[in-house]
Specification:
MetI-like fold, mainly alpha
């Protein structure tokens, strides 16, 4: 066997080992969700349940109003995803297609904001929301998160791959910058838009700290906060917690599988041009 073939086999085995390592925690989570509490505390712990306890899912999802939690999380996640797609596209168009004084410097400063830890901005954002009487509202969960420097950078890099001749032809026909963005640039940027929307949705779906701070009513809690409330109800009932965690993970997994081709293409094309 040639050296190149051996190298490919080695890389393939290495990637399989890495993939297996990444999957083990999720497989363990699913297995734990189907066990009894007695099986959880056995030593050594069993890999698979002796008999799957499917009613753990029913009990976990009815112990708290998870239907409301899922609705709140869906509204928050879709709201933030749509907001970031719209706002980042506008900012990216300005940095990629318009020319103005200090453009490069402003873009560097804007990217520099990514170095500021999110936790540093929590208190100022909370004080603003509190002053505007926005506690326990959907806008408090959505609006503070619709700005993304990373999303703007991603969209700008993709916009740079689109030939400027399209813009020039549209301007000859009297199109404005907004018309060019909405009718030419964005239809050609579906992979990048899907990538940004998918990342935004996933990050928001699993957010915990900010929703915990701006909501204190049960009917406004998202699913991540709901899962943490099991500790007070069931004193670390791990099967229930894992059952709820598996249910929360499924929507993200389904959306990723449906949009993965856009995701891969968007990431691949976003760095083709400086």
């Amino acid at each position: 066997m040639s050296k190149s073939r051996l190298l490919k086999v080695f890389i393939y085995l290495l990637l399989c080992a890495g993939a297996f390592t990444m999957l083990v925690p999720f497989l363990w989570m699913v297995s734990t969700s189907l066990m009894t509490e007695q099986e959880i505390y056995q030593y050594p712990p069993p890999i698979l349940p002796e008999r799957p306890i499917w009613h753990n899912y029913r009990n976990a999802l009815t112990a708290l109003p998870f239907g409301r939690f899922f609705f709140n999380t869906a509204v928050m996640s879709f709201g933030v995803a749509l907001g970031q797609v719209a706002l980042c596209s506008l900012a990216a168009y300005a940095f990629a297609r318009l020319s103005f004084r200090g453009q490069h410097t402003l873009f560097i400063i804007y990217l520099g904001s990514m170095m500021i830890p999110t936790i540093v901005t929590v208190i100022p954002r909370f004080l603003v929301v509190q002053a505007l009487e926005g506690m326990n509202t959907y806008w408090a969960l959505i609006v503070p998160s619709i700005n993304s420097a990373w999303g703007t950078f991603l969209m700008r890099q993709f916009f740079l791959t689109i030939p400027r001749s399209f813009d020039e032809a549209a301007k000859l026909d009297g199109a404005s910058n907004l018309t060019i963005l909405l009718r030419i640039i964005m239809p050609l940027s579906k992979p990048a838009l899907a990538t940004l929307g998918l990342f935004s949705f996933m990050w928001t779906w699993q957010s915990f700290l900010w929703p915990l701070i701006v909501t204190d009513r049960m009917n406004m809690r998202p699913v991540e906060v709901g899962i943490s409330m099991f500790r007070g109800l069931y004193s670390q009932n791990w099967p229930y917690q894992m059952a709820a965690a598996v249910t929360v993970m499924l929507p993200i997994l389904v959306i990723f599988l449906l949009a993965q081709r856009y995701f891969i293409r968007g990431i691949a094309l976003s760095g083709l041009k400086r």
